[in-house]
Each structure stands twice: as structure tokens, then as C-alpha cells.
Amino acid sequence: MTRLWPDLMPSNSNAFFAAAPPEAPGILAIDLDQLAANWQALRDYVAPAQCAAVVKADAYGLGADRVIPALAAAGCRVFFVATLAEARQARTLAPQGNILVLDGITPGASEAYTQINAWPVLSSLAEIKEWGQEGVQRGSPAPCALHIDTGLNRLGMSEPDIRALAGDTHLLGRLDIRLVMSHLACADEPDHPKNAKQHDVMRQLRPLLPNAATSLAASDGIMLGPNFHFDLVRPGYALYGGQASKGRPAPVKPVVQSFARVLQVRDLAPGATVGYSASYSAEQPRRIAVIAAGYADGFFRHLSAAAGETGGFVAFSGKRAPVVGRVSMDLITTDVTAFNDPSVVRGDWAEILGPTITLEEMGAAAGTIGYETLTRLGRRFHRVYLERDGDI
Length: 392
Description:
Function: Catalyzes the interconversion of L-alanine and D-alanine. May also act on other amino acids.
Active site: 56, 276
Helix content: 25-40%
Largest sheet: 9 strands, parallel
CATH superfamily of the largest domain: Alanine racemase
CATH architecture of the largest domain: Alpha-Beta Barrel
GO molecular function, one term: pyridoxal phosphate binding
CATH class of the largest domain: Alpha Beta
Strand order of the largest sheet: 2-10-9-8-7-6-5-4-3
Oligomer: single chain
Shape: elongated
Catalytic activity: L-alanine = D-alanine
Protein name: Alanine racemase
CATH topology of the largest domain: TIM Barrel
Distance between the termini: 23 Å
């Protein structure tokens, strides 16, 4: 009988394990109630500023079709996506919401934005002129946002271009600029001098477009303090329970947990090797659990561990089991020799991510960040969405 390691799981764990079909190699459990609570906690934290939600990349991999309606029901009215395709989906899921497209417009695409009432975030004078022409064809200016580069040097208008725009009354008359925004380069490092420099640039340029709201802070920027909140904040990673800042933690809790099945348990004699390239060799008798997850499921190959090395972990009943050998596309091998009461057996569920192993820890062990970890999780796993006090 499959055991659920109940001391590890939330109170509704039996329900979400029972909801998984027996053939499912893994489960990705997404708590929509906690997602909504996170957004509301951030909204209250930044008041009187408004709180938007960043739902790009399929809501950071968790499923925009479920995440956006949950956030809209919680009260969110402003959603940021990256592409026009994402904006089309968001419009169907949040008909009354304001949808902003961070990547702006590509040449010739302006009409497609107005058709779904999406606001492009414009980052260059070329985009602005094209969007202004769209307003002429419509007969009235179309809403948009402007991105100012305050020091990140990715997308964004330079200070000279912003000043030129502010002085061009003809071009401004073709635009309905609702928001002026920028993005912080070092928000996860509260003491980095770049934060204050970017803040000061935004404060200096803000009066040039006085009728537009201002936004500077995303998830980590929120925790830099009220001076960074301006009129609107744009949390993404924090909504899903991420804690990337090296300073004050955000008032949020984890939203996602991931588990994979044990497919087989093997006993190794001294000298036996495990996995590709025989990179791990048992120095003593070891017991190995083979788990149905791999780099195709977001468990990074960098979490592999050769003999004498430390790689990634899974967990059973809150106790960690180290990865041994190479992580492959579909399988992980972990050392469960220390698990005797109870022993790990075929059919058990291994925690990939959850109460024992955080997004940040998993990302750091793989030499990356929690953001990347989150967006790559469990593409082949059975998804369970928890809401309304544990109903599925």
C-alpha cells in the first residue's frame, strides 16, 4: 500500500495524493488559496500603493488558466505578462482586468493589442511612434505604459529619449500613458548602492509625465521599503511563495509542493556504481531508491553527485536523502540507507520540493535561482490545485 508520509504533508494531503491517477510518476500540488492569500498580504503590505500580479511564463509554470482566475477572485485587477499570446490568454481569464505586456510591441503588431485591450509596455521611441499611429487610426489615443531604463540596461527608454518625448506635445497627444515603470537590477541585495541610484533616477524623471502612475518595485523591491513602492508594485515570484531577497522576507508562504514516486529500491555491494559514467561508486553497502523524476521534470542535472560530492536531495518524512550518481532525463537515484523505521519502499512518494526543500535551496544547490526552478517544475507530473479549504 502506498504510504503518504503524513507528518510531512498538509492536512489535505490524503486528498491530493488520492486524486493522482495510479500511473502518475509525480505530483505538482498548487495551493490556490495560499496564492490568493499571498497576493492579499502583499496588497496590504504596500497600501496605499496598488498591487498587480506578474503571471508571465504560464504563471511561472504553475498554470495561468488556474492562477489568473484565482488572483482575480482575490481582488487583483492588474496583470503583467511578457508576450501578446500570453495577453490573449489573460484577457479571456480576467475579462475586467488591465493586461500589460512587458515585451512591448513588435513592428506591425499594434492593432492586435488594441483588439484585446492590452496595454503594451513601450521601451523605445520607435515603439512609441508606432503606437501613436495606432491611436490616430483608432481615432483616440490607446492606453499604454512606458519603460524607463534607470540602470538595468535591458529594455527601457534612455533619459534623453524620455526628456525628448516629454517635450513633444504632438506625439504625447497621440498617447494615453497610464503607467511609467522601471526595473531594479539588485533588489535582492538591500544594501547595494544600485538600488538608491535607480530610485533617484526614477524620482527625477517621474515629473516629466505627471499624469501617469509610477512603478519601480517587483517582488524583492517591495521589501526595500515604502519609498520604492510609488503607485504600483509588480510581484511575481513572491506571489508563488518565493523568497529571493537577502534582506527582510516577504509576507508570503509557499504555494507549490512536488513529489515523485519511488520506482525501485536496490541494494548495492561495495564497489558497485550508479548511473551514467559510473560517477558514483559505493564504498560500503548502500540502499538506493530510484525515483521517477529527472531533468525533464525540472530536477536539474547539476544536482548530480559523484562519489565524495554533495549534490541535491529529496526527502521522506522530513528527512533528507542525498542524490547519488547522475541525474538523468527521467530518473534520480538517492541514498536511503539511513531509512529504517520505516524503510523506503516501492510506491512511496519522495518530496522534490516542499516543507523540507525550498525553491531557494534547490536552486542554489543547482547553481541557479529559485525563479528558474519554479518555472521548470513537473511538466510531466499530475497537477493538483487546492482551493476552498482543501477541495480539489
